[in-house]
Design a protein that fits this description.
Number of helices: 4
CATH architecture: Alpha-Beta Complex
CATH class: Alpha Beta
Number of strands: 15
CATH superfamily: SOS response associated peptidase-like
Helix content: 10-25%
CATH topology: hypothetical protein yedk fold
Number of domains: 1
Mean pLDDT: 94
Distance between the termini: 22 Å
Radius of gyration: 17 Å
Shape: globular
């Protein structure tokens, strides 16, 4: 999937939806890309906390270390067998819920790509299955798990977020590694549950779905 998502709900709505117990003063970002801040909900000692942290775990290849390059970021967890995830994905203390209302994919010809936003019809506030951890390079960070895309998303991207229903939040936060694997490899939510907002907004425009300029299907990009 692409590395762009948005939340168009208020902090108060997020707190209520996720039954947050501890909510420091945070702002809801209009959009989140790798390296910028996003909101996460995690649980410690039975209390759910809302926090704003950067998206993307540190990633540094052997060549990068050899050349003295600083680590980059990786915000998507696709391969659970990758050694960089082996401790994080197993231990429930590193699980989190990522509040989102929309995720985006680029649409159109190279050099003219626009934003196509995907959201759920009857569940405007969604939890993306995530992982969070304090790292030496970047401090607290988070990443989201991906899965095979459904038929609606597949023409844009072959991966999409692992989205959770409210009655699945506890299982994600406290479940075993077998539960994590089951979530990633289950069938994605059906295409008919989603809607697409086609826009004329350039991919790098920074315009969130709430302010998007819709594009009619018969309108040239």
């Amino acid at each position: 999937m692409s590395r762009l998502f948005s939340v168009t709900k208020s902090v108060e709505e997020i707190v209520a939806h996720f039954n947050v117990d501890v909510s420091p003063s945070v702002e809801v970002p209009s959009e989140t890309v790798e390296g910028t801040y996003g909101l996460i909900v995690f649980e410690r000692d039975g209390l759910r906390t809302l926090r704003s942290v950067p998206w993307g775990f540190p990633r540094q290849t052997t060549d990068m270390r050899r050349d003295g390059e600083p680590p980059g970021r990786i915000g998507l967890v696709a391969d659970l067998t990758n050694p960089m995830w082996e401790k994080t994905v197993v231990d429930p203390q590193y699980r989190c819920l990522i509040p989102i209302t929309h995720f985006a994919n680029p649409e159109g010809a190279k050099g003219q790509k626009t934003r196509a936003w995907f959201s759920l019809h009857r569940q405007p506030l969604i939890a993306w299955a995530g992982f969070c951890r304090r790292t030496e390079a970047f401090g607290g960070v988070f990443a989201g798990m991906t899965m095979t895309a459904n038929e609606l998303v597949r023409p844009f991207n072959d991966r999409m977020p692992v989205l959770l229903k409210p009655d699945e939040y506890d299982r994600w936060l406290h479940g075993s590694i077998q539960d994590v694997i089951a979530f990633q490899f289950r069938e994605p939510m059906p295409s008919e549950d989603f809607e697409i907002l086609h826009t004329r907004d350039r991919w790098q425009s920074g315009i969130p779905p709430g302010n998007a300029f819709p594009r009619r299907h018969n309108m040239l990009i």
